[in-house]
Write a structure and sequence with these properties.
This protein is about 35% helix and about 15% strand. With about 350 residues, the chain is of the alpha/beta class. The chain has a seven-stranded parallel sheet, with helices on both faces. Strands 2-1-3-4-5 form a five-stranded parallel sheet, sandwiched between helices.
Length: about 350
């Protein structure tokens, strides 16, 4: 594919926020691109007829299906820059057929997500979020705040890539017995003492289960009603990977029955209509989400696991470096190639 590059490349951002724009502006001092920021998301409802750009830069809740990609091609745009690691929101086979290159940021700060993951565990266990609200109201009662020692507990980590392996390291350091599950063993995790087991074994033995797998055909609704039945009563379930790895419909029944004793989410299956926006004056239409936030043993954060200055700086630099690499006609290691496309779930 031959891209038409202008002397100064123009990159149009969708779903951009002021807090990330300053990092992109800072990184762009090295590259000199023309950056244009739009707050609204990219979807099939976006008017692209007058869009003048060489590339679009998108995030997790922008939708690039066949129709959107066709519209981009119609505007002579041949490059999609994902400022995130996941790419389940992009129709990759369609992009390949249309001759549109797609690049991503595979690792911006695995430490940020791993640390947030363990933060959710600690907050849920020791009810820190509830204690904070009590003390603000001068309520110093400890009733209902009883936790447990994580030392000696069994933690199951599903997905032991960059983030999952760091969670294994942290939990091992806290004295947890760690079980792991992945298609490929991570030698670092083995050296840390993690024992790789089947999913049924991990479900049955784990007091805490943390999800760190990508969203694909075999992980969509990985946690469903059947999976829950295999877990311990009162299990702590944490998801900082992708929302649809958990079937949201099974969470409320699982909480009501006591099968799920603690639930920590930084992602949610229908988060595209919720996260990254101030909806405090709106009536939320998602009944499942509204029910979840009423439980005292549920802690939900709005996809902020990645949200550190270090991560945003890395995202900005890597995104723009991807563009520069392609602009110079070089092979970009972060391009989603045909090998990845064949494995994509549609």
């Amino acid at each position: 594919m031959t891209c038409r590059w202008w002397p100064t490349m123009k990159i149009v951002f969708f779903g951009s926020k002021p807090y990330e724009q300053r990092f992109f502006d800072e990184a762009n001092e090295k590259f000199g691109f023309e950056l244009v920021y739009f707050a609204h998301h990219l979807s099939r409802h976006t008017d692209l007829k007058s869009l003048s750009a060489d590339a679009v830069c998108v995030f997790v809740n922008d939708i690039l299906d066949h129709d959107v990609l066709s519209a981009l091609q119609g505007q002579d745009i041949r490059l999609v820059v994902l400022r995130c690691a996941g790419f389940n929101n992009v129709d990759l086979p369609a992009a390949e057929k249309l001759g549109i290159k797609v690049v991503r940021v595979p690792a911006y700060s695995p430490y940020a997500v791993a640390e947030h993951t363990v933060g959710l565990m600690l907050s849920l266990n020791r009810k820190i979020h509830r204690a904070y609200n009590r003390v603000r109201e001068s309520n110093f009662s400890l009733e209902g705040l009883l936790g447990f020692d994580m030392h000696g507990r069994t933690a199951g980590v599903i997905g032991t890539g960059r983030i999952g392996s760091l969670v294994v390291r942290i939990l091992s350091g806290m004295g947890c017995r760690v079980l792991a599950h992945d298609l490929q063993k991570n030698d670092e995790c083995v050296q840390l003492g993690a024992n790789y087991v089947s999913l049924p074994e991990l479900y049955a033995q784990s007091d805490i289960i943390s999800l760190h797998c990508p969203l694909a055909c075999d992980t969509h609704h990985l946690i469903n009603a059947a999976a829950l039945t295999q877990m311990k009563e009162g299990v702590m379930l944490i998801n900082t990977s992708r929302g649809a790895v958990i079937d949201a419909e099974v969470l409320v029944p699982g909480l009501k029955s006591g099968k799920i004793g603690y639930l920590g989410l930084d992602v949610y299956e229908q988060e595209g209509d919720l996260f990254f926006e101030d909806l405090s004056n709106n009536i939320i239409q998602d009944d499942v989400f509204e029910r979840l936030v009423t439980f005292p043993n549920v802690l939900i954060t709005g996809h902020q696991g990645y949200f550190t200055a270090d991560a945003l700086r890395n995202i900005a630099h890597t995104s723009l470096a991807n563009v520069r690499t392609l602009e110079q006609g070089q092979v970009c290691e972060n391009e989603l190639t045909a090998i990845v496309l064949r494995g994509a779930c549609r």
